Amino acid sequence: MGSTVVRAVEAAPGLELVAALDAGDDVGAAVTSAGAQVAVDFTVPSATAENVRALVDAGVHAVVGTTGWTSAALDTVRAQLATRPGVGVLIAPNFALGAVLAMTFAARAARYFESVEVVELHHPDKVDAPSGTARHTAQAIAAARAQAGVGPSPDATSTTLDGARGADVDGVRVHAVRLRGLTAHEEILLGNRGEQLTIRHDSFDRESFMPGVVHAVRVVADHPGLTVGLEHVLDLG
């Protein structure tokens, strides 16, 4: 992802790449000496929070594609940003525009269906499960259903093997598949008696994330504080 972002920024009109960092580099010192205004983080969950803290301390806006953030870690970022007014951090579980639209459509449709479940499918080198995209999707669906007064999906399961019904994300079941040959894929399944709506998005190449990353780089400075989800900086009506 890092090298793909480097190429995308270099090719984007009006953007200039001033530094490219790797594991072990001093993030704060590097971005400060390079004069960076925005930094993009695609690392791993064990490193990303420390990177973001260093960027905020340096007064550099951050666009983050690393998943695995906990609520506590996000609260820590919010508290730090409160001491650095004007600095923006945008954390997005998925930068593919189609994936963002799928999440948005699913949240809008969820109130009209009795049942909803999420299936995410990724390559086996992915370190977190379920994916950040699937968690974000399920959270948005759960919030929309709660606001509309929709109850939980029916489920009469009384005996099960551990994990057979997937993870429970705010009451929405999320299933993770890890298979060689996949890149990043998600299905949202919504059902009523006699009908099913399936919303699916497929990323076949990391290039699919680059339009969203470049857009986030361009607009993050206009959104001080913490923004979670690319949908909040797109005009989705």
TrEMBL record:
Question: Which Enzyme Commission number(s) are listed?
Answer: 1.17.1.8
Q: Quick check: keyword NAD in the entry?
A: yes
CDD domains named among the record's database cross-references? DHDPR_N
Q: Could you tell me what reaction this enzyme catalyses?
A: (S)-2,3,4,5-tetrahydrodipicolinate + NADP(+) + H2O = (2S,4S)-4-hydroxy-2,3,4,5-tetrahydrodipicolinate + NADPH + H(+); (S)-2,3,4,5-tetrahydrodipicolinate + NAD(+) + H2O = (2S,4S)-4-hydroxy-2,3,4,5-tetrahydrodipicolinate + NADH + H(+)
Q: Which GO terms describe its cellular component?
A: cytosol
- Pathway(s) this gene product operates in, as recorded in its UniProt entry: Amino-acid biosynthesis; L-lysine biosynthesis via DAP pathway; (S)-tetrahydrodipicolinate from L-aspartate: step 4/4
**Record protein name field:** 4-hydroxy-tetrahydrodipicolinate reductase
From which source organism is this entry?
Answer: Cellulomonas cellasea DSM 20118
